[in-house]
């Protein structure tokens, strides 16, 4: 059982603040790596930070688990939090993510492949040709000119 599952046993579905990471990975052609999740929305790899794990470790782990890609140096972009990011899951669990966002421009290994669980598809996209259904995080990156179209 993971950390969040253990927390849920204690607090039920009440709202929580949960630390997470999101990693905008770019290839040598300047394309961004996106994954399509079960809900059909495209976004960058990421997930929750495990107990005792650094955010950088979490970022590398999530990218590898979800896309098969190994990455190098992470550059802090921003921290996203607040009411606009509130999530209510179908099972009733509620949380406010505190997402530490990173940029990575060096892929060090691995083979691009969706894990079939969290990622249905993984693909590099030109910034000016993003899929229609993109996550709020990608929209925020564009608004803040971290990535430009």
Automatic annotation (TrEMBL):
Its cofactor is Mg(2+). Gene3D superfamilies: Nucleoside Triphosphate Pyrophosphohydrolase (3.90.79.10). CDD domains: NUDIX_Hydrolase. GO terms for molecular function: hydrolase activity. Residues 16-147 form the Nudix hydrolase domain. Pfam families: NUDIX. It comes from the Bacteria. Its EC number is 3.6.1.-. InterPro entries: Nudix_hydrolase, NUDIX_hydrolase-like_dom_sf, NUDIX_hydrolase_dom. Signal peptide: none annotated. Keywords: Hydrolase. This is Mutator protein MutT4. The lineage of its organism: Bacteria, Bacillati, Bacillota, Bacilli, Bacillales. The gene is mutT4_1.
């Amino acid at each position: 059982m993971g950390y969040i599952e253990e927390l849920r046993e204690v607090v039920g579905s009440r709202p929580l603040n949960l630390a997470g990471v999101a990693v905008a990975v770019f290839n040598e052609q300047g394309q961004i790596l996106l994954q399509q999740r079960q809900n059909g929305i495209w976004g960058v790899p990421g997930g929750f930070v495990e107990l005792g794990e650094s955010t950088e470790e979490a970022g590398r782990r999530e990218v590898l688990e979800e896309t098969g890609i190994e990455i190098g140096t992470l550059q802090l972009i921003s921290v996203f939090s607040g009411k606009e990011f509130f999530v209510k899951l179908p099972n009733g669990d509620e949380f406010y993510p505190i997402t530490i966002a990173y940029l990575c421009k060096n892929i060090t290994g691995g083979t691009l492949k969706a894990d079939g669980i969290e990622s249905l598809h993984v693909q590099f996209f030109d910034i000016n040709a993003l899929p229609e259904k993109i996550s709020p995080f990608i929209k925020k990156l564009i608004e803040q000119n971290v990535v430009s179209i």
